[in-house]
């Protein structure tokens, strides 16, 4: 009996001995990865922490030759004083309306374009998709001048005639702030990738039930696109909220200023009010942080699914 059980015990203990080096290697890899991720997180968070700490320092402390990281006196009054320097509530409202407008247009038109490129077979579909990919490679600032000319010479707007002459077109209007940034090639590309990853059997079953193309898009596929909608919506809102150059070019009226342009009031030729500038910048980042916290789960899931096909 003892001779029969001895080989069996040897067979059971052998795999345990072989897995020890592998477990040690896996633990080392995990620790190294966590250390790298922690260092990367600290590097990402440090500018945000520095901005908040700087917003709570006095101008005299900021001018010290040997400044400290934390303020000796926490100047919480910098925030209400920064809000009094300019009509920031109006700037916040304008930025919010523009960002909501861009997000709504992008989600509606971008999802339709992405669905068409992913699910509808038509001649030239691949050529059009390659065109969108080519647009992704064009630097944003090279499109500023053509867009400005289109806005300025928009026919029948702002006193322009049918040929776009004689007036200001869309300059200093909400049209110039919302329409040119309403849809981007990157949003169409992301939506196309998401629609491609969904199973074709859903579409075939919907057609057998008699649904037309728009109802298949709206009632069958789009409800399954929550991660994509959250990802594209958050990216669009963030890009629109942080936009500085385009609102500065197309508006001169103070009633149409946005928050990023309004922060320039703290930067003068002679000096810069760093404490007020950092206080205003901190307030300007609050909406984006709140939005990201609510959409974080869908945002990460959306980026993970975007590279499936």
From TrEMBL:
<feature type="transmembrane region" description="Helical">
    <location>
        <begin position="216"/>
        <end position="237"/>
    </location>
</feature>
<feature type="transmembrane region" description="Helical">
    <location>
        <begin position="31"/>
        <end position="53"/>
    </location>
</feature>
<feature type="transmembrane region" description="Helical">
    <location>
        <begin position="174"/>
        <end position="195"/>
    </location>
</feature>
<feature type="transmembrane region" description="Helical">
    <location>
        <begin position="96"/>
        <end position="115"/>
    </location>
</feature>
<dbReference type="InterPro" id="IPR000515">
    <property type="entry name" value="MetI-like"/>
</dbReference>
<protein>
    <submittedName>
        <fullName>Carbohydrate ABC transporter membrane protein 2 (CUT1 family)</fullName>
    </submittedName>
</protein>
<keyword id="KW-1003">Cell membrane</keyword>
<comment type="similarity">
    <text>Belongs to the binding-protein-dependent transport system permease family.</text>
</comment>
<feature type="domain" description="ABC transmembrane type-1">
    <location>
        <begin position="92"/>
        <end position="295"/>
    </location>
</feature>
<dbReference type="GO" id="GO:0005886">
    <property type="term" value="C:plasma membrane"/>
</dbReference>
<dbReference type="Pfam" id="PF00528">
    <property type="entry name" value="BPD_transp_1"/>
</dbReference>
<feature type="region of interest" description="Disordered">
    <location>
        <begin position="1"/>
        <end position="21"/>
    </location>
</feature>
<keyword id="KW-0472">Membrane</keyword>
<keyword id="KW-1133">Transmembrane helix</keyword>
<keyword id="KW-0813">Transport</keyword>
<dbReference type="GO" id="GO:0055085">
    <property type="term" value="P:transmembrane transport"/>
</dbReference>
<keyword id="KW-0812">Transmembrane</keyword>
<feature type="transmembrane region" description="Helical">
    <location>
        <begin position="127"/>
        <end position="154"/>
    </location>
</feature>
<dbReference type="InterPro" id="IPR035906">
    <property type="entry name" value="MetI-like_sf"/>
</dbReference>
<feature type="transmembrane region" description="Helical">
    <location>
        <begin position="274"/>
        <end position="295"/>
    </location>
</feature>
